[in-house]
Prior knowledge:
Substrate binds at residues 124, 155, 227-229. By secondary structure, the protein is of the alpha+beta class.
Amino acid sequence: MSGRTGRSWARHLRGIVTAIAVGTGLCIAAPHGPGTAFARGPVSVADIAEGLQEAVVNISTTQTIDEREEGAPPVRKGPKSSPFEEFFDDFFDDKGPDGKPRKVSSLGSGFVIDPSGLIVTNNHVIEGADEIIVNFTDGSKLKVIKILGHDPKTDLALLKVEPRKPLKAVSFGDSSVLRVGDWVMAIGNPFGLGGSLTIGVVSATKRDINAGPYDDFIQTDAAINRGNSGGPLFNMDGQVIGVNTAIISPTGGSIGIGFAVPSNTAVTVLNQLKEFGETRRGWLGVHVQNVTDEMAATLGLDSPKGALVASVTPSGPAATVGIKPRDVILDFGGQTIRTMRDLPRAVAAGTVGMEVPVKLLRDGETVDLVVTLGRLPEEDEEEPELDEGLGGGDLLGLTIEPLTSELRDKYRISGKVEGVVVTGVEPGSAAAKKQIKAGDVIVEVTQEAVRQPEEVVTRLRAVRKSGRRRVLFLLADAEGELRFVAVPII
């Protein structure tokens, strides 16, 4: 993946969730009480920070940008001042004034985890970079000699430098013991201002921001801004309990809602990157979806919970032990599955070959099974078997189906119209805000014709992977009248 500072990294975001560079701060206030004196202000964290700043680094990258991304379809730019000019400007990178590819630079943050020269940062900070330089607090610089591994799904990367002497390193803490209200501190490189420290509290844990199938973020109000991506979030023992990754902001600046990858997730991924150069996630071989209020009663549940199996991969681990569509997985390896999103995280955290007890509900009866985890196949690394299927965040709020004769009759769609029909739009979604409605037909996605829902999903995932901020639909109404609609990626 390519660096995401400025326009480049902003494309990596979904909706107004913005990738960030390392660092946020920490601010500890003395407890209030009768007679408490505040003449000297809140309790200082200088002693904690002093021993950590040397291990926090600035990451600078350079990358050559051509007119359009390799493998992109032929460009059909709109005329200047046309209604579509803003859409095309979002999709295509211009060459420099001399017509040649231009070089862009980006800045992020990182931190040393091994004195021999192992450095952690975000994948989006170094993605696609031609050169990566690590800048230390003493003014020295080291060139990254190797990317040991990177993982787009958790936005982590492990870098290797060759120092002349052992580096100052920091250690990971246990993120599972974090509580809402605990003080945390971030150090990083916001807006290129290296060594910046901010403080705040843990605002929430286990946040799902629709960034990927394994979302489990720590939310903090410690200030995190552009350039903080990849930096450490420390607890008050000076241990790294998170890797700063994203913010929610309509302006790109901190509004007190930042997100960090929990240290326990990071350690698992980084250990695999160090050992194998890649992640080796557990694999169950199912597609799942949430149980809605309407579904709960028919499935024999007293309330919506668990992960509803929509389909099972033939010959996969789940199929081997007899897991079937319509089963509701309630517990996986002793972890309660409250929603569909809990299952991918639990499975991915498992070791390949591990035997895991599974509790599920089938036709109102509880069934206990033991499944042996496989390894998530290479071809599924960009499309995990455990995801939302054809709905939710993947489709920007749209429900889509093949254009059958029955649906043509239902929506009175002309026989000359071909594509994929929209049968539902989630209120308040990105698609709804662009006035897409049931009965509209998706003719093209990013200038490629689509005829099946799977083709729409594939094109949307390609857009997300490219880092673009909007996806361009060509829609037809029932009479075949065409219109372009650019929908923000969320």
